[in-house]
Amino acid sequence: MDFTPLTGSCRCGRVRIGMSQPPVMTAACHCRGCQRMSSSAFSLTAMVPVQGFQVLAGDPVPGGLRGPELDHRFCPDCMSWIFTRIRGWDEMVNVRPVMFEDLRWAEPFLETMAAEKLPWVNLPVRRSYAGFPPEADFPDLLAQFAAERH
Ligand SMILES: [Zn+2]
Ligand SMILES: [Zn+2]
């Protein structure tokens, strides 16, 4: 799939974001935390190298689970959940791909936390994990994603 830089915005449009390089992975997460934060059955993620992600307008604020590991960012006005940084993994940003106008990168390649999946959810993913993928699987997953999606 050819990549063209993407722009997007939150529900109200005050926060605008850009993705200037393709994601290295796309995923759905079925954990109870994502269900609650997205007010839906699962969350969607595009994993993007930090240099490939830009906040073009607005000032996203912390929200969601304000734990030591996760830095969830929201629009201060409409409260859309826009992206998450994982502390200690500074080279990547997990962006909510449904914010972009071009939704081709929203399709999840893998799913995580399938153990907490709502029973009627059935996603056409390539890989499914009951929990989170073990780190040892990452090189293969990234290579497979790159080969199939780029
Ligand atoms: Zn907003
Ligand atoms: Zn989750």
Describe the protein in words:
The chain has 150 residues and is mainly β. It has helices at 32-38, 138-149, and strands at residues 6-9, 16-19, 25-29, 43-49, 53-57, 61-63, 70-74, 81-86, 92-95, 110-112, 127-128. The chain has an 8-stranded mixed sheet. Strands 1-2-5 form a 3-stranded antiparallel sheet, with no helix packed on it. Bound molecules: zinc ion (2 copies).
Explain the layout of strands and helices.
Layout: E1 6-9, E2 16-19, E3 25-29, H1 32-38, E4 43-49, E5 53-57, E6 61-63, E7 70-74, E8 81-86, E9 92-95, E10 110-112, E11 127-128, H2 138-149
Parallel strand pairs: 3-10, 10-11
Antiparallel strand pairs: 1-2, 2-5, 3-4, 4-9, 6-7, 7-8, 8-9
The chain binds zinc ion (2 copies).
One zinc ion is lined by residues 10-12, 14-15, 75, 77-78, 80.
Distance between the termini: 5 Å
Give the overall shape.
globular
The arrangement of helices and strands along the chain is EEEHEEEEEEEEH
Strand order of the largest sheet: 6-7-8-9-4-3-10-11
Approximately how much helix is present in the residues?
A: 10-25%
- Approximately how much beta-strand content do the residues carry? 25-35%
The domain count comes to: 1
CATH first level: which class?
A: Alpha Beta
CATH topology: glutathione-dependent formaldehyde- activating enzyme (gfa)
What would you report as the Rg, rounded to the nearest angstrom? 15 Å
Largest sheet, if any? Answer: 8 strands, mixed
Number of helices: 2
Report the uncertain regions.
Answer: none
> Which structural class should the secondary elements be placed in?
mainly beta
Look at the structure and name the CATH superfamily: glutathione-dependent formaldehyde- activating enzyme (gfa)
What is the tally of beta strands?
11
What is the mean predicted local confidence, pLDDT? 95
Q: What ligand molecules are bound, each kind once?
A: zinc ion
